[in-house]
Amino acid sequence: MSVRRVMGTEVEYGISVQGQPNANPMVASSQVVNAYATATVRARRARWDFEEESPLRDARGFDMSRQLADPTQLTDEDLGLANVILTNGARLYVDHAHPEYSTPEVVTPLDVVRWDKAGELVMLDAARRAQQLPGNPAIVLYKNNTDNKGASYGAHENYLMRRSTPFADIVRHLTPFFVSRQVFCGAGRVGRGQDGREHGYQISQRADFFEVEVGLETTLKRPIINTRDEPHADPERYRRLHVIIGDANLAEIATYLKVGTTSLVLAMIEDRFITRDLTVDTPVAALRAVSHDPTLKRTVTLADGRRLTGVQLQMEFLDLAKKYVEDRYGADADAQTVDVLARWEDVLGRLETDPMSLADQLDWVAKLKLIEQYRSRDGLAWDDAKLQLIDYQYSDIRPEKGLYHRLVGAGRIQRLLADDQVEQAMTNPPEETRAYFRGLCLEKYASDIAAASWDSVIFDLPGRESLQRVPTIDPLRGSKTHVGELIDRCANAEELVRALSR
Amino acid sequence: MAQEQKQPRKSEEVEETTEVAPETDVAERKEALDEDVDAILDEIDDVLETNAEDFVKSFIQKGGE
């Protein structure tokens, strides 16, 4: 394997209701999701299929359009229903007290960036629509991970892996990688400690919220390696590695490197290519030590006694990955794998010699540079509220207010994608996975779909007594190559289901 | 004038000319950088929420995941 594999992200957005700090965030999140669903989702009746094993009749008897008609009437019980599938194959829903967007399944790092950025536009559009409802105040969304008062919310990544790879190998090799990859994919944070009690800057939004090395939890005692095992694919062949340690990135290059390098390291683990032991002593403490030192000088101790900085530890993985790709592919390596390796090397080199030269590529450096400029111009101390404000507002997803967006607008942050590529991804699914089938069904046969999920699309066809469930258990089947012609040919859902059951 | 002196006609002139004017170079670069910083901070000043203290106090989230 290379950087290519089935993968995706899920991001919970920070939410605030302007002028109402005590507003119920669950209600606000539902308003956001429902406003988008009402305005754009034609498959009103389609619900998320949570329990694929339950009798199909259980999927009936629920009319989402009634719920959508009056979002302010939502009771606590109904809040869980704000949950829609989009024609781009993504899922938009309320998770706890945040609106969340999960990308469709894609197979390249650049496509992760593309559908992850499309999620920002979906959220922006959703929040604007929610505000248009009579009597609704402005709701602002933030792509960040902490309020600096003790709460954290996630930006998870998912990677499909071979089931045959021993989980112990994943833990052994991935832990030192996760301790150190923040040097390029941290989003930067003003404040140290979960509640920000210490002043100062750190590289990662999330580092202070991780307390154990391995575990199942995601909301308390968060582990560096999460063991949730819900493959949404054939469990005999695959596991889905659920990564909870990352920050929500706005910078496209940061997301690209985050998933590209992680996918490469997973490929090396699957192929048992990593023979060096890069185990770090006390990884939870090491994670924080690396995050708390934006000068990148602090070292962590390896089990073999060596002391390396976070950047040097990453260079070990880079060195292995270059050898791995050379060994397996030589000159035949695909373009994105080659590009990820080249950018990874360039970024690590700059982090060693001149980190601030990455202010146009990485979130934590861009944010730090801005903060240092303010400190120097206005003589601000680290406890000045303005610096905290800059941290929050960097992640405001509104182009007119968000500081990331202002920097992009001023040509100070590099991008990998054009605006129209991202806009198209708000409605179009990726073509190389089952998300294509899911998305096109929702686009073309909206009125006949009762429910859908990662691993199924359920049709409710006129004149048929039972629901028709089309399983999509293999993430790579249902691609454009596989079903594009079929969907083109079938004018309605009845024809499609008949063709599929033949 | 310094600008014109730095335009080498032939490749062998490159080293000489860069040797004569390093200080001017640095000063010019610093000035350009300062202007650059001022420009972006002016722009950010315009969009930053006005009452930082109130804003920071009221930015309260619930945990997620």
Could you please describe the fold and organization of this structure?
The complex is a heterodimer of chains A (502) and B (65). Chain A is an alpha+beta fold and 502 residues long. Chain A has 17 helices and 18 strands. A 6-stranded antiparallel β-sheet of chain A has the order 4-5-6-1-8-13. A 4-stranded mixed β-sheet of chain A has the order 3-16-17-18, with helices on one face. Chain A has a two-stranded antiparallel sheet with strand order 2-7. In chain A, α1 crosses α4 and α5 packs parallel to α8. The longest helix of chain A has 24 residues. Chain B is built from 4 helices and no strands. Chain B is elongated and about 55 Å long. Chain B has 65 residues and is mainly α. The N terminus of chain B is likely disordered. The chains are: A alpha+beta (502), B mainly alpha (65). At the A-B interface, β2, α11, α12 and α13 of A face α3 and α4 of B.
The H-and-E topology of chain B, N to C, reads as: HHHH
Overall helicity of chain B: 55-70%
The termini of chain A sit apart by 34 Å
Mean pLDDT of chain B: 71
Radius of gyration of chain A: 23 Å
Low-confidence runs of at least 5 consecutive residues of chain B: 1-21
Task: Map the helices and strands.
The complex is a heterodimer of chains A (502) and B (65).
Chain A: E1 7-12, E2 14-17, H1 25-40, E3 47-48, H2 64-69, H3 76-79, E4 83-85, E5 91-95, E6 98-102, H4 109-132, E7 139-142, E8 155-162, H5 167-180, H6 182-185, E9 189-192, E10 198-202, E11 210-215, E12 222-226, E13 238-243, H7 252-270, H8 283-291, E14 299-301, E15 307-309, H9 310-328, H10 335-353, H11 363-378, H12 385-394, H13 403-409, H14 419-424, H15 435-444, E16 449-453, E17 456-459, E18 468-471, H16 480-489, H17 493-500
Parallel strand pairs in A: 3-16, 11-12
Antiparallel strand pairs in A: 1-6, 1-8, 2-7, 4-5, 5-6, 8-13, 9-10, 14-15, 16-17, 17-18
Helix pairs in contact in A: 1-4, 4-7, 5-7, 5-8, 5-9, 7-9, 7-10, 9-10, 11-12, 15-16
Chain B: H1 2-5, H2 13-20, H3 22-47, H4 52-58
